[in-house]
Structures are given as C-alpha cells and as structure tokens.
C-alpha cells in the first residue's frame, strides 16, 4: 500500500514540475522504483546505504528513460527522488530546536545531512557511469 501512496505523491510532484503526457507517468513510476528499492534494501544494509542504492536506481531509471524518450534525465530524476527527500529528519530537527533540545536537534540534523549525502552519492555514481561520451 505504501507504494501506491508513493506513486500518488510522486505523481503530484511530477505534475507540479510540469511533466506532461507519458513523462508524467514514467517520472512517477521512478519514485515507486526508488522507494521500493529503498524498502527492499533497508533490512539488508541499513537505511543510509539503502538511500544511496534507491537514488542510484532512480538515476538509472531516469537515464534509461531519457535515452528512450529524448527528454533530459532531470525530467525523470527530480520527481523520482521526491519520496527519498529527508523531510522527516529536517522536521524533527526543527521541532527539537523550537523545544530547545539542541543536542537532539543536532543529531536529527546530522541524520538529514547523511541522507542528503547518500542521495548525492547514489545520483552521481550512476550519472558518471552512464554518462554519454
């Protein structure tokens, strides 16, 4: 059921990012692919590496669809990464700062930073490997 909600959320962001036609559908499915890979990998390797592998899956999805459709990879990449944005950690960090629990806020902020770095590693590693000459 979570993948259905992932599809709905990604569809909304793809529409917001002005994806139209088939691009809207394929970009939304990229979010499902990334989140599905994250969910499958988390028990095996932990959440941080699972974020990187999920981002790599979305990037590979975007690069393949880009080559098939002739559209830029970012049309598929940005909506696909939306489900993995570390909003939970950022919200927790802000909430803890407002409550003046600064040590816990720093921990939550650090977790958000680690997720962001994992996403960057996943995206750049596949982008470099699949770069056209």
Features:
mainly alpha, 133 residues, 83% helix, 0% strand, globular
The SSE order reads HHHHHH
**How large is the share of residues in beta strands?**
under 5%
Query: Based on helices, strands and strand pairing, what is the structural class?
Result: mainly alpha
The major pleated sheet works out as: none
Measure the end-to-end span: 41 Å
Q: Please count the beta strands (DSSP E, at least 2 residues each).
A: 0
Low-confidence stretches: none
The number of helical segments is 6
Overall pLDDT: 93
What is the subunit organization of this protein?
single chain
Structure characterization notes:
It contains six helices and no strands. It is an all-alpha fold. It has one domain. Helix 3 packs antiparallel against helix 4. It starts with a helix and ends with a helix.
